[in-house]
Write a structure and sequence with these properties.
The chain has 116 residues and is mainly alpha-helical. The protein has three helices and no strands.
């Protein structure tokens, strides 16, 4: 029987591989939305998708998710999807933090040039 730590690694790898496969198939649209119809930012779009998945989980009834894998693949898929979207949200937060840091560094560099 696998340990909890082994299962954490296994499930984590599955979600990461799913995200990478979807990113290859659909492009980086979750974190760089094309904004063809929706004008939501990347973060707002991810939050909307998370809301949709939470609504689906609520409708599927939390008690029944995973209780019968043969009948409940869509419930397990929904949990996997929401986990992926939460990871993508963390990626987006980190991207935005890096953008802010880069702007601060650039601003400091420009101010230093003024004093030279």
């Amino acid at each position: 029987m696998k340990t909890t730590q082994e299962l954490i690694k296994e499930v984590g790898r599955e979600v990461v591989m799913l995200l990478i496969e979807k990113n290859k198939a659909y492009g980086d649209t979750a974190n760089n939305p094309p904004q063809i119809f929706s004008k939501l930012s990347a973060k707002e779009g991810l939050l909307a998708r998370i809301d949709d998945k939470l609504s689906r989980i609520k409708k599927l009834s939390i008690q029944h998710i995973g209780s019968d894998p043969m009948k409940d693949e869509s419930g397990v898929d929904t949990v996997r999807d929401i986990t992926g979207y939460l990871i993508l949200l963390l990626v987006q937060i980190r991207k935005e933090e890096n953008i802010i840091k880069e702007k601060l560094i650039k601003s400091k560099q420009e101010k230093l040039k003024e004093f030279k």
